[in-house]
Amino acid sequence: MEKKLAEYKCDTNEATCLKLVRFPEDVEDDGTTFHPEYSHQLFGDDEVAFGYKGLQIQLFYTAGNLSTLFKVKYSSKVTDTFDCVEADDVEGKIREIIPAGFTSNTDDFISLLEKEANFKPFGTMLHSYTVHNEEAEQLTYQIHKADISCPGFQEYHERLQTFLMWFIETASFLDIDDDRWDFFLVFEKYNKDGETLYATVGYMTVYNYYVYPDKTRPRVSQMLILPPFQGEGHGAQLLEAVHRFYCSLPKVQDITAEDPSENYVKLRDYVLTKLCQNLPSFDADKLHLGFSADMIREAQEKLKINKKHARRVYEILRLRATDMSDEEKARAYRLEVKKRLFGPYRKNQRELAKMRKCLRPEELVSHMGQLDTQTQHEELEKSYQLALEDYRRVIERLASQA
Ligand SMILES: CC(C)(COP(=O)(O)OP(=O)(O)OC[C@H]1O[C@@H](n2cnc3c(N)ncnc32)[C@H](O)[C@@H]1OP(=O)(O)O)[C@@H](O)C(=O)NCCC(=O)NCCS
Fold first, then answer.
1. What proportion of the chain, given as a percentage, has pLDDT over 90?
2. Residues of the chain with CATH 1.10.10.390
3. What angle do CA 99, 101, 102 make, to 5 degrees?
4. How far apart are CA 294 and CA 292, in angstroms?
5. What is the largest CA-CA distance in the chain?
6. In this structure, which residue's CA is closest to atom 30 in ligand 1?
7. Which of 81, 109, 124, 186 could connect to 69 by a Cys-Cys bridge, CB 3.0–4.6 Å?
């Protein structure tokens, strides 16, 4: 019986089929399907749905307006009567995250594609850029700034944010009924039967925090480039456009991010280094003199970059300007980075020392101190190597864009 029931378990990342549809033929084309990276928020940590064989959850969206087709298909399902077990309510779980107004009829969905010609990007255009794809076509993209006052935007955003659940591990939906939210959207212009249409590529949400007495601190909340468009430079274009937009506003103190992911930090390192590399205080001859007050001031005043981020930029640019085959220079560089990395370890050590005072001797492992120092040394070296790896990646990317 157990073996039989095991056949009715499905991996929900595989079973969920997402699609951004431009042309009717995309609906049947498996090549345009993509799958979630995460489905644990809906289906639990195992990312498994029970009760179905051959489960397929179709969530297809029209490319621009994101009108939605939602269907659940399977080849067989357990039944209360014969198997005495109940199947998971897959449909109910998906309905919790997708807004009303979707269709479950493929023909209706295909007819919605005709309305895509009426879909126009929301808000005002901040930036436009072109990219050459593999077929040597020139594609044009636009970055727009929108807010909740844009007609139809609230409903569109509800459809757009459903993607967060599948691609951000700790995603949560926004209640955007607050005019402190800014939205930045990326669209691709494409041609269909001689008409120009717009496809949704990705977006970023930013909350404008108030800073006493008269400043704001925009904080990036979520950023998503839809998977078919990832790794093509759109994330960098979007982040740079957002930075440039806020730099132009005198009331902005600096730009921060909420709980940034590793990927986001990588992207930010690249974008901020690209922006800072031409500032006089970051000139190659000044980098070897250390992280200076001038760097902090210039990055903050001209680019609204805070001290912590400016420090990373300095380390990246200094690495680029350092001949690492020269032992002395490499050592000076290593010490400089480790000095910063050591900050949290020193704090740890202070806390440990305090703890020792409170504990009875028998509670202390005799060689705990020694072990900690060694572990900390190893951790520090590991952090340094990881930072170097990330920094080298940024330097390579800057060189490839030069
Ligand atoms: C993180 C994220 C926003 C990055 O967006 P993106 O559009 O893929 O970013 P980019 O294309 O600018 O850069 C990504 C990589 O593609 C590479 N790349 C960019 N253009 C390229 C091109 N034309 N050819 C080859 N590689 C390219 C970049 O060098 C970079 O590689 P690296 O990370 O090894 O340095 C996106 O992957 C995403 O939405 N992920 C899921 C959600 C998430 O993690 N959000 C962030 C936290 S909320």
1. 83
2. 274-402
3. 85
4. 5
5. 81
6. 231
7. 109
Answer whether 392 contacts ligand 1 (Cβ < 6 A): no
Rounded CA-CA distance 239/136 in Å is: 25
Q: Indicate the pairing of strand 215-225 with strand 256-257.
A: parallel
| Cα 394 to ligand 1 centroid, rounded to whole Å | 12
Provide the 10 A C-beta neighbour count for residue 290: 12
The label of the residue with tokens 């929301």 reads 122
Reported pTM: 0.92
Q: What 3-state class would DSSP assign to 355? A: helix
CATH 3.40.630.30 maps onto the chain at 120-259
- Give 306-321 pLDDT, tens digit per residue: 999 999 999 999 999 9
CATH of domain 120-259: 3.40.630.30
Nearest alpha-carbon partner for 338 in 387, 289, 295, 272: 387
What one-character-per-residue DSSP string does 149-192 give? TSTTHHHHHHHHTHHHHHH-TT-------STTEEEEEEEEEEEE
Pocket test for ligand 1, best of 161, 230, 268, 396 (most atoms within 8 A of CB): 230
**How do residues 141-163 score in pLDDT, each as one tens digit?**
999 999 999 999 999 999 999 99
Q: Which architecture does CATH list for 274-402?
A: Orthogonal Bundle (1.10)
H-run or E-run covering 57: strand 56-62
CATH class (in words) of the domain with range 2-115 = alpha beta
Q: Where in the sequence of the chain do the CATH 3.90.360.10 domains occur?
A: 2-115
Rounded to the nearest 10 degrees, the angle between the axes of helix 262-276 and helix 234-247 is 60
